[in-house]
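Sharing a chain and its predicted structure for anyone who wants a worked example. Both blocks are below, sequence first, tokens second.
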Amino acid sequence: MVDIYPFKAMLFKNDDSGNISELVSPPYDIISPEQKQQLKKINKNNIVNLILPDEDNGFDKYTSAEKKLNEWIKSGILAFDEKECFYIFEESFIENGKWKSFNAFIGLNKIEEYESQKVLRHEYTLSKPKEDRLNLLRKAKTNFGLIYTLYDDKEKKVQEILNVCMTREPLYDFNPEYDADLRFKIWKIDDTAKMNLIVDYMKEKNILIADGHHRYETSKIFMHEVKGLRKQNIIKSKKLKLNSINKEIFPEDAVLTLFVNFNQENIKILPTYRMIKFENFTDANDIKMRLKKYFKINDYTDIFHEDISKELQHDNAVKSNFLNNITNYMNDSKTRGIHSFCFIFADKSIVFADLNKKLTDIYGSLSKEDEVFENLDVRILHRLVIEDLLSQLKVGQIDYTHSIDELAGKIHGAVNYDMGIILNAPDINDVEFLSFNGKVMPQKSTYFYPKPCSGLLMFKMDL
């Protein structure tokens, strides 16, 4: 059901631009302004110059990215692979002091409408990030990063091909300068028979977008724009001739994609925490009283004291104890099937709220799909807490983080939030089930970890 293609990757030439470990970056949407400057200091040719461009010499940032990209290609900093390939990708990361890894392959995926159910989404997107990525795509006509997708290969048909190819010497094997706790490896699959087998096997699959919804939907918009221009004879884009698999495609009809078999134990979903500023906030006690309608409230304020926010920043023992207390409570709740949320307030009080009513008692009978959907912690938080119990307070601003100590630091620091909410991540099987049944989760419901890097392999369209 999924149409995929090998491609000639655009990549950095180590000898002309620096070591590849200095040139890649995290995905654009998790790079802070401080990290952006740090990446530029690591190497002046770091990919962050293209994925998060600046205005330069009177040109807007998107035109600046286009000009710099063309300069890098002309000067040989960026080059193109000699033949069409699929590429095997392995990412290793440290968890609890031990190295763990997962592998996948990289290729082009034919862009599909969600209604086809060939490519599935699981989260809603925001318009502003799509507008930014679309403006960059219009100018650079390049995929610098990867759409992270999941597919089911329990029979290991694709995996066996990857395993054979991974016995060879990798094309890349390095720790990125931006995070020594990550390691990336790349191998080529350039054998025509193997590539055709992968193409055929993937036709039996659906894929689920794990990360990169904004970039996928941006690519879809761009595809329709180019089709419209071609129809009006305003442009004449040429098809890519994929000789290795005897196919042709318009380059704008495909997007650079990471295909991850989710039947691997080291595919992780981390929770995304909320930080909220209300328009009609009164005090923490008011919120605690409202929560009691559906939740048992357990006060945990005694882990705080007058200068806890300062000690969280400077005392590792205090920070470790603080994080362990919260993490252990949340993990224990998840193990026991309890929907728990940790509320941290600006007045330095902290409570755990455990749902003590059945959702069917609140909403009535539910279908199987609705039951799984409504029992997601992120759904309970948004529908039951924010939209119901706290609706009169009116959310003025909501921001996100994946770090408990960052959340606590911002709630108790100079940033003007009223409270932060810590919740558990959804299970990957629930995400897959809901996506196949047409259920879309609230934005920022999942955070797949670790993230692949940007700038390692790129797809330059030939328009």
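Comments welcome. The longest strand covers residues 98-110.
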